[in-house]
Amino acid sequence: MTARRALVTPGTLGVQRFGLQTSPPRLLWLFRNGDKHHDGSPFFLKTHIKTLEALYQELTKVITPIAGPVRRLYDQNLRLVVDLADIVDGAKYLCTSGEPPACAERLQKFLSEWVIQKPQTRVWSEFFVV
């Protein structure tokens, strides 16, 4: 009796993935500046958005600020976001039309406890005990 040859040769079948492999979108919680009754709107930052100006245009469609289109974005520590790399998945952001952030009593929901902070970067010397 002769051995049968396999009809399907072993290889990359079932191993390779076809199609476009992209990273999952980041979730942002957006709040209007000065609106103390706004509970926040979820927004998924997709990878096709490459600049802050493009992000501002998309945010204006979602949140519609009180005084005009979104021109500035602040994190929960009220620091201005200057690069897309500064955006953290799951964090809260304040959308303004160029004006400074409102007073703390109008931002109570924005400044509440539940938030994911960007991890602090450590210096290599902290990892090694001498």
From TrEMBL:
<protein>
    <submittedName>
        <fullName>Tubulin polymerization-promoting protein, related</fullName>
    </submittedName>
</protein>
<dbReference type="InterPro" id="IPR003533">
    <property type="entry name" value="Doublecortin_dom"/>
</dbReference>
<dbReference type="GO" id="GO:0035556">
    <property type="term" value="P:intracellular signal transduction"/>
</dbReference>
<dbReference type="InterPro" id="IPR036572">
    <property type="entry name" value="Doublecortin_dom_sf"/>
</dbReference>
<dbReference type="Pfam" id="PF03607">
    <property type="entry name" value="DCX"/>
</dbReference>
<feature type="domain" description="Doublecortin">
    <location>
        <begin position="26"/>
        <end position="100"/>
    </location>
</feature>
